[in-house]
From TrEMBL, chains A, B:
Name this protein carries in UniProt: Aminotransferase class I/II-fold pyridoxal phosphate-dependent enzyme
InterPro entries: Aminotransferase_I/II_large, PyrdxlP-dep_Trfase, PyrdxlP-dep_Trfase_major, PyrdxlP-dep_Trfase_small
Aminotransferase class I/classII large domain boundaries: 24-348
This protein's UniProt keywords: Aminotransferase, Pyridoxal phosphate, Transferase
Keyword Repeat assigned: no
A single GO molecular function term of this UniProt record: pyridoxal phosphate binding
Organism: Romboutsia maritimum
Amino acid sequence: MKELGHGADVNNIASIYNIDPKNIIDFSSNINPNVIPNLDKYVIEGLKECRSYPDISYMNLRKNISEYINVNKDFIIPGNGATEIIYLLMKSINKRLAILNPTFSEYKRAAILNNLEVIDLQLNKENNFEVNIELIKENIDSFDSLFICNPNNPNGKVKYLQELLNVIKQNNKLLIVDETFMEFVENEEDYSLIKYINQYENLFIIKAVTKFFGLPGLRLGYAVTSNKNLIEKIYNYKEPWTINSFADNLSNYIFKDSEYIKTSKNYYVKERSYMIKALKGINNLKVYDTDTNFILLELTNKKSKQLKDELLKDKNILIRDASNFIGLDERFIRVAIKSHEENEILIKQMKVALGD
Amino acid sequence: MKELGHGADVNNIASIYNIDPKNIIDFSSNINPNVIPNLDKYVIEGLKECRSYPDISYMNLRKNISEYINVNKDFIIPGNGATEIIYLLMKSINKRLAILNPTFSEYKRAAILNNLEVIDLQLNKENNFEVNIELIKENIDSFDSLFICNPNNPNGKVKYLQELLNVIKQNNKLLIVDETFMEFVENEEDYSLIKYINQYENLFIIKAVTKFFGLPGLRLGYAVTSNKNLIEKIYNYKEPWTINSFADNLSNYIFKDSEYIKTSKNYYVKERSYMIKALKGINNLKVYDTDTNFILLELTNKKSKQLKDELLKDKNILIRDASNFIGLDERFIRVAIKSHEENEILIKQMKVALGD
């Protein structure tokens, strides 16, 4: 089987490179290394729930999310990861979708599979891929909906979007914001658009448990919107029971663990600062500034594929070759911010590989 | 929220009827009451896997299923329950789909949501809803694919389908068989079409862990077909990571637990016989013969809605009002075969409610 071009393809890559997947340090997927306490206990409780079907209307799950983000539970649509939400949304919106690139490839894949017309807007490398509101204004008549990842994957920068939200509203368009990585941002509350959900019906936000709570295998994401028309369309397409009982049950605990949430946030403020500084100390490497838990890097003396191969074969380190993002090229890689010990290993080996 | 017309809607119904869901004995969903040993241990192991993304190509999961049903792993497509498989299939087949009714309503819902033309073929109450091959032959030019549930939900009868498979093949059509309940059947190997998978490319079988392994909250089903064209189409539409890490990990154990499998099969042979006999002893009730873990019943002196209300309000027993199946009417109910103790309670209370 060929490589799939996503991060998080460890087993497949391990088999291609003939490495035991257990030995790989995976910097290609952006997962919080901190662990929620007492998960074992919760999971045994979840197992009991597994003996019956999950509640088809996920009332308890929606209530837990509702309390976590302080939004009416009827404005929350739970999904099998953010992925289910993205695919349902693409079935439910109008034909012309603008996407700000470079960004996560599943938006476009889901849009095309659902016969949407995709308008690829391109952010500027020279401007560090910063969200360009002028570019959006210039193209406003070309789309019905605009998809933004904030902070953006792969470059990790967050952006104030209040002005954009108003522009989009004034033009009767829909703003879709993937805030999957928002919880990693310092002063999250300043940047997250969740607080505008009641007021703006033209806003659709995607969030997930995957990254910040460090549980990608659990498969739990959710949509937040007060747009009743869109909610109805999505439920029309939604398949029953897509969220498993472990996820349903764990929602009773993880969202309420304020200690875990605080510790993780503090960890990322500190570790981000360490990583950026350390990476900037490496020759032949351009470091893009980040507000989240991964970092975009540009190589000046080597191709990304080559560095990936070297780090994997010699050091069991898996980085994300980011050359397949629209608008990036064969010089780009992305690395996650993992535990401090793992980050140190990465820094050390990158120094060796890039010729310091 | 209104009742959803499926079984397995316990929490919602409990809230409508103002009953603690924990007190309800749920005969509306068809789940094996026997429990696989050591699940706690497996689930703690699965939790560790949850810290990374599931393998996007589910190699290990497909290998485990492959060994369980003795089919090439490349012919297996794992899904988030049988439901994901049904919805993917509807995106991937030709326009005209015949469905044998009465049967599980999600087939038709999924077909219509994907703009298929549904041809509803009707099985005959007078013939105990037995699969009618003549009816299919008469209508063979009206469809591209035929969907059969075997044994069928809601009536529970299994049918030899070899002859039908040949008829369908000779006419260049696709036969889709939902074998979700096949493992409950005595002499399963005589009835299951799995053994024809290599030989017949016009065959598509749906199976799941949900019912027989008693884990509906786990969300694990799978498709089996040697039709490479169909496999390719389905993967084209398939969303990534739809199966959670607990399900992926549990596949290492549940399919290999031959003791659990044997004990469950024996239990159902015995308990089915007891239940049918006991129900036949109740007045004002027609019992349809079954080969699986649920029984279709027809009331002669009461409407199904009324009996459902009475059993729920007075006795905390939830039965499936089967009046919304196409071709059934307000006299039909369906009950699961549960533990012997629970079955005895049902029999006793049905006797009271139906006026013995």
